[in-house]
């Protein structure tokens, strides 16, 4: 008579301990990767809104210039009828990009709320001739909400409109915190 040994594990598969260890490893990996994916996605959305805002401002000036001609004495107030926006404010506070934490909209600075949720802050009395570089500074906050950052700039970004309709995120002589 011969004795045969059969396998104690008749059903192939993983044990409960192996599954729990695998789930724990996946949980640790997810803990580190998901926040980075979310931040990366949000930054991509902000960059897209920033570039869209640059296009909106440039197009408004080009449309203005097509009807009125290019002039260094043009103020941004003259361009605003060509700007595609939802509403304006002179009392809002948005995130800044240049050395301070907040940027306040108060006359003659106006906040223009865009269709994409962003806000442009522009001094409508500034002309191209009133600045040494022939440009107008535009502050853009992608969500239009002041984040309350007290030690430096929030998510707001500057860009500059030149009197030929070109926009630039870091012109000569100006520093920018972040250039997408």
Task: Characterise the protein shown here.
- This protein is of the alpha+beta class and 180 residues long.
- The protein has one domain (16-168).
- The chain has two helices and eight strands.
- It has helices at residues 16-68, 76-79; strands spanning 87-89, 93-95, 102-104, 109-113, 119-123, 135-141, 157-162, 167-168.
- The strands form two sheets. A six-stranded antiparallel sheet has the order 1-4-5-6-7-8, with helices on one face.
- Strand 2 (93-95) and strand 3 form a beta hairpin.
- The longest helix has 53 residues, at 16-68.
- The radius of gyration is 27 Å and the shape is elongated.
- The chain starts with 15 loop residues before the first helix and ends in a 12-residue tail after the last strand.
- The model is unreliable at 172-180 (pLDDT under 50).
* Total strand segments: 8
Q: What is the number of independent domains?
A: 1
Q: How much helical structure, as a percent, in the residues?
A: 25-40%
Strand content: 15-25%
C-alpha end-to-end distance: 81 Å
Low-confidence stretches: 172-180
- Structural class label: alpha+beta
- Tell me the strand order in the biggest sheet: 1-4-5-6-7-8
Give the mean pLDDT. Answer: 80
Order of helices and strands: HHEEEEEEEE
Morphology: elongated
Query: Can you summarize the main beta sheet?
Result: 6 strands, antiparallel
């Amino acid at each position: 008579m011969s004795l045969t040994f059969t396998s104690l594990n008749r059903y192939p598969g993983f044990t409960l301990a192996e599954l729990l260890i695998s789930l724990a490893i996946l949980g640790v990996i997810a803990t580190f990767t998901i926040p980075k994916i979310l931040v990366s996605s949000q930054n991509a959305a902000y960059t897209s809104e920033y570039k869209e805002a640059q296009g909106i401002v440039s197009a408004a000036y080009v449309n203005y210039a097509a009807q009125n001609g290019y002039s260094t004495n043009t103020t941004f107030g003259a361009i605003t009828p060509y700007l595609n926006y939802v509403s304006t404010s002179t009392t809002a506070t948005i995130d800044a990009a240049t050395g301070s934490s907040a940027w306040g909209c108060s006359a003659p600075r106006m906040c223009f709320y865009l269709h994409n949720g962003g806000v442009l802050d522009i001094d409508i009395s500034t002309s191209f001739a009133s600045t040494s570089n022939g440009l107008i500074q535009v502050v853009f906050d992608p969500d239009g909400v002041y984040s309350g950052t007290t030690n430096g700039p929030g998510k707001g970004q500057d860009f500059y409109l030149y009197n030929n309709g070109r926009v630039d995120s870091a012109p000569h002589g100006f520093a920018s915190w972040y250039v997408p």
